[in-house]
Amino acid sequence: MTEAIQRTLVVLKPDAVQRGIAGELITRFERRGLRLAALRLVQVERALAEQHYAVHAGKFFYPDLVKTISASPVVAIVLEGPNAIPVVRAMVGATRPHEAAAGTIRGDYALVGLRNLIHASDAPETAAAEVALWFPEGVVSYTRDVERWMTDEGAPA
Ligand SMILES: Nc1ncnc2c1ncn2[C@@H]1O[C@H](COP(=O)(O)OP(=O)(O)O)[C@@H](O)[C@H]1O
Ligand SMILES: [Mg+2]
């Protein structure tokens, strides 16, 4: 069966950039086989922060969330690949880092919820909306020769 190719939005939050581990985190996704479809260093404006976290508006941690993601530049990335949305969520790990499994990004690098390093879309609808919000100019479409050795397209030949 051919798996569905999905796009998902990842944001390496200010703590990831400040700690100098953005490249390391991107490497994990590349190693997994996911393809970069867009990438941008962004100083997040309040309006973008509020829209991105609109689903959390009204929650007790919302003001801190908006402040935290606008505090310093982030790296916004669109990743593409078979089942990219659940694959990336699994690689990111649980929201609360003390509950995140070892081997996940949060389980390996983070300690507390507001410093959990990374955002990743959680479903096809949110992924589509978030990709459009962060990359209104669109993403880059291409394939890599190695794709056929990492996906089931062309397999088993
Ligand atoms: N109870 C909480 N206290 C403080 N910060 C929180 C809490 N819940 C969530 N957050 C922060 O808000 C972000 C968005 O929350 P949520 O969408 O539930 O998690 P996730 O990033 O895993 O999708 C989290 O990544 C985390 O930084
Ligand atoms: Mg979320």
Strand order of the largest sheet: 2-3-1-4
Helix content: 25-40%
- What would CATH call the architecture? 2-Layer Sandwich
Beginning-to-end CA distance, first to last residue: 14 Å
Low-confidence stretches: none
Query: Helix/strand/pairing class, anyone?
Result: alpha+beta
Shape: globular
Calculate the mean pLDDT score and round it.
96
Domains counted in the coordinates: how many? 1
- CATH structural class: Alpha Beta
Note the main sheet: 4 strands, antiparallel
Secondary structure blueprint with pairings:
Blueprint: E1 5-12, H1 14-18, H2 22-32, E2 35-42, H3 46-52, H4 62-69, E3 74-82, H5 84-92, H6 105-109, E4 118-120, H7 124-134, H8 147-150
Antiparallel strand pairs: 1-3, 1-4, 2-3
The protein binds adenosine-5'-diphosphate and magnesium ion (MG).
Residues 56, 61, 65, 95, 113-114, 116, 119, 122 line the site of adenosine-5'-diphosphate (ADP).
